[in-house]
Write a structure and sequence with these properties.
CATH class of the largest domain: Alpha Beta
Protein name: Sucrase/ferredoxin domain protein
Order of helices and strands: EHEHEEEHEEHEEEEHHEE
Strand order of the largest sheet: 1-13-12-11-10-7-9-8
CATH topology of the largest domain: Glutaredoxin
Shape: globular
Radius of gyration: 19 Å
Pfam family, one: Suc_Fer-like
Number of strands: 13
Helix content: 10-25%
Organism: Talaromyces stipitatus (strain ATCC 10500 / CBS 375.48 / QM 6759 / NRRL 1006) (Penicillium stipitatum)
Distance between the termini: 11 Å
Number of domains: 2
Length: 286
């Protein structure tokens, strides 16, 4: 069980943050400055909640399940859409606390699936594991074998095909326009600016790019806290970390790439850090 470092009374102070903040002595005098040459900007009427404390307010979970749909927007509540894989995963019994989202991940299918039309790919985080050929009927097996790890069924006879996620980092952007228009507006702008800073270093990967390494950027459905848009979730494979940021604007993307993605530091934790976990150290924000 992870140890919570959150003060339930204060809602989070500097000493409570589980991720280090940048500081000018280690990171240079410009580490706190936001990008001044952004190529995109949020609309003037993009209003969010800028006052409320947000650190430690994320609902606890241990496994994040991303369902590949190939789309960047969905019905308002995918978890309530009966007959969908997202709904089935939200209803399944698991020993773990699951967070389930639709995503724009592209499905990989092969002839071993009994229902190729509805089969898709699921990404499990923070284990960075892709499972191909997932269908509604295979959800219990998916959970038993790859999440709870209680199944003894033979992998040789299963249609489910696991493979490692090739990326070193995964960044999730809520793009759920039909749930909140702010997310549909902010996600492509944040993605474009992240891409601008990642490409020169050869690190950018989109939803269809499976070259080893780099930073995979995916759109996901509602993650909660739309009033704190834009929400940006950064998963770091080697460190087993999730760093969940909010109130992100394009001018923050340079710092996110340089410090958060590559170094695990947060530039403005008092304003933007919602929480997360570090499995290597065994700590969470909840």
């Amino acid at each position: 069980m992870f140890k919570s470092l959150l003060s339930s009374i204060t809602g989070g102070t500097n000493k409570d943050y589980i991720f280090p903040a940048v500081n000018t002595q280690e990171d240079g005098p410009d580490c706190l400055k936001d990008c001044s040459d952004c190529t995109v900007h949020l609309p003037d009427k993009f209003h969010i909640d800028s006052e409320r404390k947000i650190y430690g307010k994320v609902k606890p979970f241990t496994t994040h399940v991303l369902v590949g749909t190939g789309k960047s927007d969905w019905v308002s509540k995918p978890e309530g859409e009966r007959g969908s894989l997202v709904h089935a995963l939200c209803e399944v019994s698991s020993k773990e606390r699951l967070m389930v989202n639709a995503s724009n991940i592209t499905a990989h299918k092969d002839d071993s699936s009994t229902d190729r039309d509805s089969a898709t790919t699921v990404l499990l985080l923070p284990s960075f594991q892709l499972i191909d050929n997932v269908t509604i009927s295979s959800v219990p097996e998916l959970v038993a074998r790859f999440i709870d790890k209680t199944s003894t069924s033979s992998a040789e006879t299963s249609a489910l095909k696991p493979r490692p996620c090739p990326h070193d980092y995964v960044v999730l952007l809520c793009s759920h326009k039909r749930r909140d228009a702010r997310c549909g507006t902010s996600a492509p702008l944040i993605k474009k600016e992240l891409e601008r800073h990642l490409r020169p270093a050869g690190l950018y990967r989109d939803a269809t790019d499976e070259r080893p390494g780099g930073v995979g950027i995916f759109y996901v459905s509602h993650v909660g806290g739309h009033k704190f848009s834009a929400n940006v979730l950064v998963y770091r494979k080697e460190e087993g970390q999730l760093i969940w940021l909010a109130r992100i604007r394009p001018e923050h993307c340079e710092g996110i790439v340089k410090y958060t993605i590559l170094q695990g530091k947060v530039v403005h934790p008092e304003f933007q850090l919602r929480g997360g976990f570090d499995k290597e150290r065994g700590v969470t924000s909840w």
